[in-house]
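step: validate -> pass
step: tokenize input -> pass
step: predict -> running
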Amino acid sequence: MMSLLLDKGEVSVSQAVFYTGMNHRTVVKTAELLKLTGIVREKRFGRLRVYELVRSSPLAEALTNLAVEAQGASFQPKRMPLKHVP
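step: predict -> pass
step: emit ->
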């Protein structure tokens, strides 16, 4: 889920389930853990939960740097708008 957040910037629970293949409960528990550590923030729109990477967080910055080193200079984290999941 962390690599998905690094790539997209923010994702809904449904998108995270779709893209990661994890079940709903695992995505929610993972997102809650990331929220507790300050790596993501939760935005709610009614029943829809969207998790956004907090790029100013020292932990998120360290993870981004780690991803850059692991994937080489071609990795460019970006913020992408939410898209409807089929």
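step: describe -> Residues 2-71 form a domain with the Arc Repressor Mutant, subunit A fold (CATH 1.10.10.10).
step: cleanup -> pass
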